[in-house]
Amino acid sequence: MATHHAVQVRSVGEALKLVDVDTTSPTRDHVRIAVSACGVCGTDRAFVGGGFPGMTWPLTLGHEIAGTVAEVGAGVDNFAVGDSVAVGWFGGHCSVCIPCRKGDFIHCENLQVPSWHYPGGYAQSVTVPANALARIPDGLSPVDAAPMGCAGVTTFHALRESKAVPGDRVAVLGIGGLGHLGVQFARAMGFETIAIARGAGKAEDARALGAHHYIDSTAGDVSEALRGLGGVAVVLGTAGNARAMADTVGGLAPRGQLIAIGVTADPLPISPMQLIVPGLSVVGHPSGTARDVEETMQFAVQSGVRARVQECPLARAAEAYADMAEGRARYRMVLTM
To answer: Which long-range contacts (CB under 8 A, 24 or more apart) does 91-95 make?
Structure first.
């Protein structure tokens, strides 16, 4: 039987190791992808830490996958060998649960996520459900496409589903792996874009990414600074910091919206009084379906939005993971095969 290289974690908290694993043909309604690139996402830390229920070991990380269809299983007639495809956090839906029957695939009760429910993309080969596939448009390389499957679709889809319309002021909290894409998408969508981050060090980057304004959250009251700019329709909270998100609420205009996509288990310190009088809303936003990923990539091609990435070969995945986990990455790490 043929084999391929994959990077596995043997058990909770252990180091990433390059191993050889069997390459098997896809079953019905699945395809096998020859992986070209796979993003390293902050959520990978939670997987290594055993932070999700029902995980099985050894674990192959990776849910920002880009590559080429290498084999198709029975029943797959809408993709063919050679197609350029991406798979993100959304790794397949069941089509039979109530959310799926309503067309709400991202809330499928049996949603599959690469690395959680089947081996992920830190590998030369990955087998996925065909309904997880997003077609990569011409003009987007695998390295550019990979981060769009999670970081890209999460920020793009959150903004386009928000209450903001072109011309509105939108603030992006946090200028990291998610936020640096959020700023670019916000600018490209026609919003007056405000970047918020800790310290003055990211001001130049934020403006280069397209921000019209920059707020240093350590220099004073963030809500006051937002009100000084006229208030904002939306805050996109990409920083996984509950206090930092809460500190923006006073800067929302009436009927404004705080959208939380930065992951933290800490409670948001916001009082009902803050929300009631101005009619504010606080919402969480999940990732996006395979079609949402396709539309994210198409918009990226049209607008020129790209993740800023550092490439690293698969054999050095442990280094790339450490750079991400310890905050040395600017802004996304992408493994190449």
So the answer is: 91/63, 91/116, 91/117, 91/118, 91/128, 91/129, 91/132, 92/117, 92/128, 92/129, 92/131, 92/132, 93/129, 93/131, 93/289, 95/131
Q: What is the spatial distance between Cα 234 and Cα 257, in angstroms, rounded to a whole number?
A: 5
The per-residue pLDDT for 331 is 93
d(CA 276, CA 141) in angstroms, rounded, equals 46
Residue whose structure tokens are 């939670």:
46
Interior angle at CA 62, CA 5 and CA 52, nearest 5? 125
**How do residues 125-138 score in pLDDT, each as one tens digit?**
999 999 999 999 99
The partner residues of 193 in beta bridges, in order of sequence, read 170
Taking the CA of residue 243 as centre, how many other CA atoms within 13 Å lie in the half-sphere pointing to its CB? Answer: 4
Return d(Cα 300, Cα 192) in angstroms, integer: 19
Residue that has been written with the tokens 């974690």 in this structure: 9
CA dihedral of residues 52, 284, 302, 212 (deg, nearest 10): -120
- Whether the CA torsion 10, 265, 150, 295 is positive or negative: it is positive
313 Ramachandran zone, left/alpha/beta (phi>0; psi -120 to 50) = beta
Residue from 242, 248, 294, 288 nearest 268 by CA: 242
Q: 6: which 2 tokens?
A: 């994959």
- Model pTM? 0.96
What residue type is assigned to position 142 of the chain?
A: P
**pLDDT for 319-329, tens place per residue?**
999 999 998 88
The CA distance from 89 to 261, in Å, is 13
The stretch 53-82 carries a mean pLDDT of 97
Angle between helix 151-160 and helix 179-188 axes, rounded to 10 deg: 40
